[in-house]
Input
Amino acid sequence: ELKVEQNPLFLSMQEGKNYTIYCNYSTTSDRLYWYRQDPGKSLESLFVLLSNGAVKQEGRLMASLDTKARLSTLHITAAVHDLSATYFCAVDKASGSRLTFGEGTQLTVNP
Amino acid sequence: DTEVTQTPKHLVMGMTNKKSLKCEQHMGHRAMYWYKQKAKKPPELMFVYSYEKLSINESVPSRFSPECPNSSLLNLHLHALQPEDSALYLCASSQDVPGGRTYEQYFGPGTRLTVT
Output
């Protein structure tokens, strides 16, 4: 059974600071997705990582994938309040059309 | 057009009611999904349709009945629900190829369901 673990689950940080969210998964996969969810809203796709060593950046967020370590990171640079949301990573099991989500990281950026 | 639409946005129903949730996409995707999401939890997969055929049912109770009338539409029929079924119901779609690999899933805005 594929398991996906995120940490931290809760993150409170000040504006202007940097931090990293980690996503570990338990079985072989070469596809990992990061989503953002605002309270009461749907999931917004942030990054699609499709191969070992993939790195993608959008604004203050950068995501990377290490399939050998079964680890993805979401790095936040110089956080701003607008980044406050819950961030989910999700892994595509290599043999089926099913995403397994992590528990989510609830990020709060304080002024 | 990368939009998935869902109706209604909110639904309140009694335990004896019958209602339906609707989802539509016009991206040419051939895989469509229903998820249930409780507060502060990740989405839980309920059903997957691939090429209008049900390919995955995650042991969902029969009071939830999915239907895929065509490649653009996905319905979720609800009957005799319980209060614990109150949640955000999300529809998603993605490209799909034979063999079942999933691609990036695009999520709709969700239906907030309250069962009284």
Notes: The interface with chain A takes residues 31, 40-43, 45, 48, 50, 55-56, 88, 90, 94, 96, 100-102, 104-110, 112 of chain B (CB under 8 Å).
